[in-house]
Design a protein that fits this description.
Chain B: Keywords: Membrane, Transmembrane, Transmembrane helix. Chain B: This is Quinol:cytochrome c oxidoreductase membrane protein. Chain B: It comes from Sphingobacterium detergens. The structure holds two protein chains of two kinds. By secondary structure, chain A is an all-alpha fold. Chain A has one domain. Chain B is an alpha+beta fold. Chain B has two domains: 88 residues, 2-Layer Sandwich (Alpha-Beta Plaits); 66 residues, no CATH class. Chain B has five helices and four strands. In chain B, helix 1 runs antiparallel to helix 5. The chains are: A mainly alpha, B alpha+beta. The interface between A and B is medium-sized, with 17 and 16 residues.
């Protein structure tokens, strides 16, 4: 039932044109990134090589997480039968479309890091599980039924493979809906989304245990999976917001207005609080029980080289969105949202930095050409791949059953 | 002078009601309120309803909760009966966070519900005051204050022109007492 008689003149065949400066700068960023990584890997210095691998893991994981968050966003909209997002769902769809490539890149980084002993050497080294070897580590030996190279790699392939397959199917069904109309694609996406969310919900904690937590294999925290999920979800929402604002500023997507931005802002705000909640839950339980094998994680991050960054991460990821986005009007302003989204993306880079570096390069950590170059390279790659994907289809799923409701969204 | 207090236009279709609003507004007839069985996006902006001030109440109750939760903990854990828990100082901030947070949320939520009930004259056992019973079922109601807008014939014709299936002249504001 249409409740509004006034019609808008929106061009639902509008396409984003990926060319000019955006394309050029993203390619330059990729080239700079490749140069920085090559410089690190070919330096011949063991510490620099390890530092490069740690950075590659950080950005590869971040990149894959953001694309996985796009897939999660798409699936969540189907399962909750959300209407508000119908007008902007092509953006997370484009992010999801890049997930197969992102997964492959992460798989290569993890595989090379593992085989060259630059990553995961805490549980993958000669003699760790052999009682007669000088390197024998009873804790790692006890975990080896789970934490061994073949099973680890199988899990990586299966998890990221599954996410990628669903990501591709969701996009295909949506493009099919554009051509054929009707409810068939929507209903099928709904069912597949429900299946995907169950798989995703159960496997992402395990995936982050494997990819990040196993860098310090003695330590474990059951909260770690949700903590990583919160970071992934917030950064995914930030990426969607940035693309929406940038496209709107460039004159695209007139049907997306401050009401849709407000909803993105609420998700950003709410899940930043959720991130803090999970972060603090993990911290407080360890602090309270004060068991040495658990507190070691925070002791490492309490060393002078990490302590200021540890606190800065809390300020950027919790205090900043709390203060900047609590106001209703702030969530409806493009520039405020753009600023907070960029800030939060930087904040979650720092968050991952604090997760990864103490377990890899520890006191040899740095912030220089390798860090900036790797981050820039992956940023360029993300922009290039996602915007290229976005330019291939119309900016709106014009036959989406809830599109009309999305156009009239008001909060 | 009639005793009519409110003129109610009853619509069967929300689009017709939106037309009705346009027509009344075009003739400078102020609309008292509008009742619909389902939310209609954009209607607050159209009627010029000011944004709710509930968030302000929520903030105040939340701040009260923070203060009370923190004070409770400080009084019991630090001032009145300090205990040695795992060798930690009595005044250990991380301890204070969960309870303070929970009391903040509790008071904020309960305070918001109470404010909402108070403001809308709703509380358990109270007969709800409704201007038209079918507004909760299948009719879209536009209410016009009959004292403020004198030209009742014009209102009647505008409402019917817009597609009102029924126009009522009520001497009492609420019908639910009856």
């Amino acid at each position: 039932m249409g409740t509004h008689s006034h019609h808008h003149d929106y061009n639902f065949n509008e396409r984003y044109e990926f060319a000019g400066k955006a394309k050029m700068f993203s390619i330059i960023a990729v080239v700079l990134g490749v140069a920085a990584v090559a410089m690190g890997l070919l330096s011949g210095d063991h510490v620099t090589v390890e530092r490069t691998y740690a950075n590659l893991l950080l950005m590869g994981y971040y990149f894959t997480c953001v694309c996985a968050a796009g897939t999660f966003f798409v699936a969540l909209q189907y399962v909750t039968q959300s209407a508000w997002s119908a007008g902007l769902v092509r953006i997370p769809q484009a992010m999801a479309g890049v997930l197969p490539i992102a997964s492959l890149i992460l798989l290569v980084i993890v595989g090379l890091g593992l085989t060259t002993h630059n990553l995961y050497h805490h549980w993958h080294a000669d003699g760790l599980t052999d009682p007669n070897n000088a390197n024998y580590d009873p804790i790692i030996a006890g975990k080896s039924a789970y934490l061994n190279v073949p099973f680890f790699l199988i899990r990586q392939v299966v998890f990221m493979g599954l996410y990628s397959i669903f990501a591709v199917i969701f996009a295909k069904l949506s493009y099919k809906e554009d051509l054929e109309g009707g409810l068939a694609s929507y209903k099928k996406s709904f069912k597949l989304s429900a299946i995907f969310l169950v798989i995703f919900g159960f496997t992402t904690p395990i995936w982050s245990f494997d990819t990040i937590m196993s860098l310090e294999a003695h330590w474990f925290s059951t909260m770690f999976g949700w903590y990583n999920f919160a970071a992934m979800w917030v950064s995914g929402i930030c990426c969607i917001t940035i693309i929406v604002v940038v496209l709107k500023k460039a004159g695209y997507m007139n049907w997306v207005n401050e009401n849709h931005l407000h909803d993105l802002g609420k998700l950003m705000f709410g899940f930043s609080i959720f991130w803090t909640y999970v972060w603090f839950a993990q911290f407080m339980l360890i602090w309270y029980s004060n068991i040495p094998e658990e507190t070691v994680y925070f002791y490492k991050r309490w060393e002078p080289e990490y302590k200021p960054w540890f606190w800065l991460s809390i300020i950027i990821n919790f205090v900043a969105p709390l203060l900047l986005l609590v106001d209703r009007d702030a969530k409806r302003k493009q520039n405020v949202m753009l600023f907070v989204a960029i800030l939060l993306l930087a904040g979650h880079w720092l968050d991952y930095y604090i997760m990864i570096m103490p377990g890899t390069v520890a006191e040899h950590r740095g912030f220089g050409i390798i860090e900036i170059g790797t981050a820039l390279g992956f940023l360029g790659l993300f922009v290039f791949l996602v915007m290229n994907k976005l330019s291939k289809q119309a900016l709106v799923p014009k036959n989406h059953p809830f599109l009309d409701e999305s156009l009239h969204h008001q909060i | 002078m009639s005793n009519t207090k409110y003129i109610l236009g009853s619509f069967a279709d929300p689009d017709d009601m939106m037309h009705g609003i346009d027509k009344l507004q075009a003739n400078n007839i102020s609309i008292y309120d509008c009742f619909t069985p389902m939310p209609i996006h954009g209607i607050e902006a159209k009627l010029g309803v000011r944004p709710s001030r509930l968030p302000i109440a929520a903030f105040c109750f939340g701040a009260l909760g923070t203060t009370l939760g923190f004070s409770l903990l400080y009084y019991t854990m630090v001032y009145d009966w300090p205990m040695n828990v795992g060798g930690k100082p009595s005044f250990a901030m991380p301890n204070f966070v969960p309870v303070t947070f929970e009391v903040t949320i509790l008071l904020c939520a309960l305070g918001m519900v109470a404010t909402f009930f108070f403001r809308n004259h709703l509380f358990p056992g109270r007969t709800p005051r409704v201007m038209d019973l079918r507004a909760t079922d299948d009719r879209f109601i536009l209410a016009v204050d009959a004292k403020e807008n004198a030209d009742h014939a014009l209102i009647d014709s505008l409402l019917k022109e817009a597609g009102a299936v029924e126009v009522k002249y009520n001497d009492r504001k609420y019908v639910s007492y009856e």
